[in-house]
Amino acid sequence: MSPFFHAYPLARAALFSMDAERAHELTLDLLQKSYDCRLSRRLLTQRPALPRTLMGLALRNPVGLAAGLDKNGAHIDALGQLGFGFIEVGTVTPRAQAGNPKPRMFRLPRAQALINRMGFNNLGLEAFIANVQRSEWRRQGGILGLNIGKNADTPIERAIDDYLAGLTAVAPHADYVTVNISSPNTQGLRSLQSHDALARLLSALQACRDAIADQSGRRVPLAVKIAPDLGVDEIDAIAQALPRYGIDGVIATNTTVSRDAVRGLPYEDETGGLSGPPVHALSLAVIERLRHHLGQDLAIIGVGGISSGQQAIEKIQAGADAVQLYTGLIYQGPKLVTECVQTLARTP
């Protein structure tokens, strides 16, 4: 592991002294500059190995980067140097949009958590795909997931149009595509998880993916990202629908709208999705329920609240095939990637 990663707590103190979104942008900018310099790139590179297969894809290790950190796919190669076995970027919408008004990201350090209401801020499909095409990650053997969503001003009854546009555009450039229907920050989006709406969406995506496969000769795996706030009956209905429509994986879970775990902390009343350790137990419950119904035939990626190697193990023990990190990176730094891989390697 690079010694620079052990120095992250010093950098974190400086970053936490500024606005959370500004710190996020600055971190990506500094990471990119470090990657662009050949000397610092070598010093910062880590590649922990623990080969796994996910949705038919060969991973270097089962610890991935969750969507949301690099919404525009502008830093794929730089992030790849941190040791991830796979990287997911987005969420991208068909048209560029600014997202929700600022401020829209808040730290809750006592809980090592974040609240965000970003609202799918991104530059749109054209810029996103151009960034993905420029990256070397896939050409060097890395696995890349592209996460698609709907524009905020697209009526919910026309959401399928946005998802089909997204799938059609990104499929040629993705190792897998994630359908994000669980962000709490786009009005009405989570209603797409309901039984009838989900069936219509998945049926349309299945037909679109089949048409793309007929033309290209390549079937891109599809994953669906769901919320941690679903009831038991809702989870069961989703578990029944996913294999019916040929979905290859499920990402469990997105951020939560619950504030039970952060009562009394600053920013608890801010709207948006809560991420970090408060989501871990919620995510585990969803993973366990899904695995119970799905058996071993459909991949589960566990995400939400991983801030240690032990929590990565708990996701796998609950039934996940791989895990993803986001908020834990903000608090623990890049060493968390290697810690998770090494801990998983030591666990039978």
Helix/sheet category: alpha/beta
* Number of helical stretches of at least 4 residues: 13
**CATH H level, superfamily name:** Aldolase class I
- Please give the domain count: 1
List keywords for this structure.
348 residues; alpha/beta; TIM Barrel; 3-stranded antiparallel sheet
How are the SSEs placed, and which strands pair?
Elements: H1 3-6, H2 8-15, H3 20-36, H4 38-44, E1 52-54, E2 57-59, E3 63-65, H5 76-80, E4 86-92, E5 105-108, E6 113-116, H6 125-134, E7 143-148, H7 159-170, E8 176-180, H8 195-216, E9 222-226, H9 232-244, E10 249-252, E11 273-275, H10 280-294, E12 299-303, H11 309-318, E13 322-325, H12 327-332, H13 335-346
Parallel strand pairs: 3-4, 3-13, 4-7, 7-8, 8-9, 9-10, 10-12, 12-13
Antiparallel strand pairs: 1-2, 5-6, 6-11
Helix pairs in contact: 7-8, 8-9, 9-10, 10-11, 11-13
Care to describe what's here?
By secondary structure, this protein is an alpha/beta fold. It is built from 13 helices and 13 strands. It has helices spanning 3-6, 8-15, 20-36, 38-44, 76-80, 125-134, 159-170, 195-216, 232-244, 280-294, 309-318, 327-332, 335-346; strands at residues 52-54, 57-59, 63-65, 86-92, 105-108, 113-116, 143-148, 176-180, 222-226, 249-252, 273-275, 299-303, 322-325. An 8-stranded parallel β-barrel has the order 3-4-7-8-9-10-12-13, surrounded by 4 helices. The model has no long low-confidence stretch (mean pLDDT 95).
Tell me briefly what this model is.
The protein has 348 residues and is α/β, with parallel strands linked by helices.
